[in-house]
Design a protein that fits this description.
By secondary structure, the chain is mainly β. It is 12% helix and 32% strand.
């Protein structure tokens, strides 16, 4: 499940047309590592991530990692853990970071020893969605999902 902070579309790069999304605590636009081609993801602080995510999941975001396994409690350089909550009954961490697409999958690849790791980026000219998935068979699965709108991702373990 993708958790977003705005129901409006991402702002395409200069020269393209489209509508800009908004979030009360979103900052200025800034390029993101591994960003989708043609998109500039907007910065957002943890207050904005928490507020938008609580609305999206219909429940609270608590401080800390919750029950995310210790070996997956990893933050990319410059990232910030905003908290955790339940999404479809699965523990989910919300992390403010510019990582997107292959860069996000590459960050978690060392924790995926013995597991299949893949990345999938889909979308259109309005928004791109990135999913980095680690599949360890019946023992554990992890998925990190983000989009081209804001600089944060949700990481779910199930």
């Amino acid at each position: 499940m993708l958790v977003a902070c705005s129901s409006k579309a991402a702002e395409p790069a200069a020269g393209s047309s489209g509508s800009a999304g908004s979030a009360g605590s979103a900052g200025s636009a800034a390029p993101a590592a591994g960003s989708a081609a043609g998109f500039t993801r907007r910065e957002i602080d943890c207050a904005g991530v928490i507020s938008g995510s609580e609305r999206a999941i219909g429940g609270p975001i608590a401080p800390g990692w919750g029950t995310i396994p210790k070996d997956l409690q990893l933050l990319p350089p410059g990232a910030e853990l905003c908290g955790n909550g339940a999404v479809n009954g699965n523990q989910t961490a919300f992390i403010r970071s510019p990582l997107f697409g292959q860069a996000l999958a590459d960050f978690y690849a060392p924790a995926a020893t013995g597991c299949a790791m893949k990345v999938d980026v889909n979308g259109n000219d309005t928004v791109q969605i990135s999913m980095a998935a680690m599949d360890c068979g019946k023992t554990r699965r992890m998925i990190a999902v983000t989009d081209s709108t804001y600089g944060f991702y949700s990481m779910q373990v199930y």
